[in-house]
Amino acid sequence: MTTKHANIRKRPAAEQNRPPVRPSAKAVATRAALIELAAEMFATNGYLQTSIRDIAREASLTTGAIYGHFRNKAELLAEAISSRTETDLESIPETSDHQPQHVDVLKRAAFRFAERRQLRSLILQGAAAAITDNETRDRLRDEQLSHLQDWVDRYEANQEQLGIDPSVDIRDAVLFTWAAEVGLGVLEALGIEPRSKKSWADMAARFGQSLTLPPLD
């Protein structure tokens, strides 16, 4: 008995189990360069105001070449934010004994807040677009939750060693800290900034120290 699709050749089992082809070094470099370029253009010109065509023109590529690396502009923005987060925030070294001392990490991260201006701008641009664009909202939500959950897992795994009070909700503590970072981006857009790196770092250290205290009530 034959069917409409009987003449379609079935792939051998060896082909079906073959691992995906790894991208070439050139493809990896092109993708990284596009992420960096998009980050600059989104932060400078605005996410909504920058099109894939604009990025392609600046990169001397076709729009098809860019879509070969990214499904859409929302994915490109999410990758730009993720890359900036890893470079500007998660690259802060831990202490020499490899124990993540949260007060010290928060203080040093806050002291370097000016270096993350572009990251905050990208998140702000994406948040504005997410209000009316479901694709952007879903893609950025996944990107943000990925980093937030990673930070929560790290602190929960070391909560006792760090001396953080057992009553502290680690997830909310991480959200509170990140809200201060993202909120600073809103204030910067209005021309409002911390008085100094030292005072901003001091506020972060005070918050970190408060996590070791018992609840007030």
TrEMBL record:
Family annotation (SUPFAM superfamilies): Homeodomain-like (SSF46689), Tetracyclin repressor-like, C-terminal domain (SSF48498)
Residue ranges of the region described as Disordered: 1-24
Keywords assigned: DNA-binding
One term of GO molecular function: DNA binding
Domain HTH tetR-type: 28-88
Bias type Basic residues, positions: 1-11
PROSITE patterns the record matches: HTH_TETR_1, HTH_TETR_2
Protein name: Unannotated protein
Organism annotation: freshwater metagenome
